[in-house]
């Protein structure tokens, strides 16, 4: 895990130098040191940092949640389901077309909860995000869907100011979560 974190931080460091453009190396190095310190704190055995794993990268929330729980054990606080509204997670079956299987649907949450509980990870919290608003939260709560935390960032804003960014390439090679890809934008230009 430490090696993986170091690799991620190296890529962030490299991206900071390219993305910000004109930033001096001392500032980038200071940022990297801060990220490394945060990473060390997150990995420390006695750390009070709550570890929450985003588990939809491969569009397989159940198996990714189990893999992370097996690896981290009690160090894992929770898993975050963030499946896009235009995707269907591998664990969700809908043979009769009785519900909308896309995104973070109640069936996905139940699948993850049941899989974690079956392997003794009943202490792992489930955090959901991606399109949650008051109405959707009320519906999940009314049906007893086992959600511990709702992430509702963009539902707080009126208008169209929502923005997200994903890492889609690393060292010129595709590295995007399922459903995302590199999309060139002719309006962007590289800065030195």
List the helices and strands and how they pair.
Elements lengths: L1 H19 L4 H19 L7 E4 L6 H12 L3 E6 L24 H13 L6 E4 L5 H9 L6 E2 L18 E2 L2 E2 L18
Parallel strand pairs: 1-2, 2-3, 3-4
Antiparallel strand pairs: 5-6
Shape: globular
Q: Provide the spatial order of strands within the biggest beta sheet.
A: 1-2-3-4
* Helix fraction by DSSP (H/I, runs of at least 4): 25-40%
How many helices in DSSP terms?
5
Strand proportion, as a percent range, falls in: 5-15%
| N/C terminus separation | 32 Å
Average pLDDT confidence is 77
Main β-sheet description: 4 strands, parallel
Whole-number radius of gyration? 19 Å
Strand-pairing-aware structural class: alpha/beta
Count of extended strands: 6
Q: Which residues form runs of ≥5 with pLDDT under 50?
A: 15-38
Features:
192 residues, alpha/beta, two-stranded antiparallel sheet, 5 helices
Describe this structure in words.
By secondary structure, the protein is α/β, with parallel strands linked by helices. Helices cover 38% and strands 10% of the residues. It is built from 5 helices and 6 strands; from the N terminus they run H-H-E-H-E-H-E-H-E-E-E. The strands form 2 sheets. The chain has a 4-stranded parallel beta sheet with strand order 1-2-3-4, with helices on one face. Strands 5-6 form a two-stranded antiparallel sheet. Helix 4 links the parallel strand 2 and strand 3 (125-128). It starts with a helix and ends in an 18-residue tail after the last strand. Residues 15-38 have low confidence and may be disordered.
């Amino acid at each position: 895990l430490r090696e993986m974190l170091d690799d991620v931080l190296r890529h962030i460091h490299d991206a900071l130098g390219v993305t910000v453009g004109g930033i001096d190396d001392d500032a980038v190095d200071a940022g990297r040191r801060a990220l490394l310190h945060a990473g060390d704190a997150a990995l420390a055995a006695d750390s009070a940092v709550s570890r929450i794993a985003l588990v939809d990268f491969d569009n397989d929330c159940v198996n990714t949640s189990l893999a992370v729980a097996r690896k981290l054990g009690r160090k894992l606080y929770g898993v975050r389901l963030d499946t896009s509204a235009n995707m269907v997670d591998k664990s969700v079956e809908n043979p009769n077309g009785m519900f909308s299987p896309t995104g973070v649907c109640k069936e996905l949450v139940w699948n993850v909860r049941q899989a974690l509980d079956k392997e003794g990870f009943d202490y792992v919290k489930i955090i959901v995000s991606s399109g949650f608003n008051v109405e959707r939260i009320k519906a999940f709560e009314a049906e007893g869907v086992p959600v511990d935390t709702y992430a509702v960032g963009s539902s707080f804003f009126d208008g169209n100011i929502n923005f997200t960014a994903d890492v889609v390439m690393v060292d010129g090679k595709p590295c995007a979560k399922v459903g995302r890809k590199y999309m060139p934008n002719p309006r962007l230009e590289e800065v030195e």
